[in-house]
Input
Amino acid sequence: MPKTKKKTSDQPKFARQSAEVRREMLVEAGIACLAKDGILGFTIDRICAEARVSRGLITHHFKSIDGLLAAVYDTMYGKVLSVIEESGVSTTPEARLVGIIDAMFSREFFNRESLNIWLALWGEIANNPALLKVHRKQYARYRADIERALLDVANARGLTIDAGFVAMMLVSLVDGLGVEWFIEPKLLSAKAAREACFRLLEPILGPLR
Amino acid sequence: MPKTKKKTSDQPKFARQSAEVRREMLVEAGIACLAKDGILGFTIDRICAEARVSRGLITHHFKSIDGLLAAVYDTMYGKVLSVIEESGVSTTPEARLVGIIDAMFSREFFNRESLNIWLALWGEIANNPALLKVHRKQYARYRADIERALLDVANARGLTIDAGFVAMMLVSLVDGLGVEWFIEPKLLSAKAAREACFRLLEPILGPLR
DNA sequence: TACGTTATTATATGGTAGTTCAATAAGGAA
DNA sequence: TTCCTTATTGAACTACCATATAATAACGTA
Output
């Protein structure tokens, strides 16, 4: 009885991939493991099983398991940033800000798998120098994007705000809502989380919707 | 050269403790390990070394390492709740709410060790049924306390608010501010975090300070 | 077709994980 | 003082961890 893939002797045992492609595959496998079992599920054995490759590959393409974790973090942030930075580039400042908030609580990011990953990563940043380095780069960009969006709305409305401080509040609230919802999903919906952001911002910026 | 403790043959090799006392000691050792290295530092070997006991004790007093982790979570929440519930019981509603917020960002709770512990625990809740059970009990109490404090202020001022929703916003913001500060301490101070909470609440409840 | 580069596999290794359990001994009770 | 309960120890055991490395083989190139 043949397995799903026939294993006749004339077909290759494995397919070689370029370093770039294989790295990407391993990162995605790492993300899947993190989503499934948190940081304790992020092991060489499980990731390689997920990616259907042998154990040696992670060490070969990333120097170590920590190197892969850093790459995972980079990729996760990259996904969020690309959506934020493409969110309504050629529209009004208000629509852009609303678009960013909507994106944050869209199914793509506001789901249990993603939040499990973020929580696993946050818990390791303080103990993993490679992770901290990646974080510093990406977080600065993230906060700058939010600050810019807030400032644009304020300027368009002739308001003077401490955009850095408001950005910090918004970022904190978004992260906190994610944590609450992840831990106790019944008490909160994506819609309610979105609403909470507007309840924070509208007293500062005026009506946004 | 004798060690710090003399080891003459007539003194006991170890001191027996009541189950309650020993459990408490192991929980504190577990907290110390979690604070130091996050969830990856929460191992039998390290905790027993921290508590200066042999490896068999954790299994004896808690059924497993997960049992200890659940007890740690219970203890951590208990510390927060006792402070919240004792915060200004016989004073004005406003002073009580301000007292709770001040307590949240006091040195006792708003410090790197504590936040490292919370992040480690949050990351495990979804994957550890024992932890989830403890969480449900304590979190409900926590949220109820906050909701009560908010409602008391609103009632005293003749305001109608959705206390449940506002409580959820406040709890989220507090958690999120903790995460931000933990990950990037330079961008935020305890004072600024406290200020952020008032910026959220005062548009809803009026001046609180 | 034959060659050479190197991605990939597969095994070995040393370390550490959690749990079990028989032996030990502390310390209260009789 | 002697006995008894049981907290505590410490070693054994199995499983899994990350990493190093030699052998293998895919596949572009000549």
Observations:
- Residues 1-8 of chain B have pLDDT under 50 and may be disordered.
- Chain B touches chain A through 43 residues (CB under 8 Å).
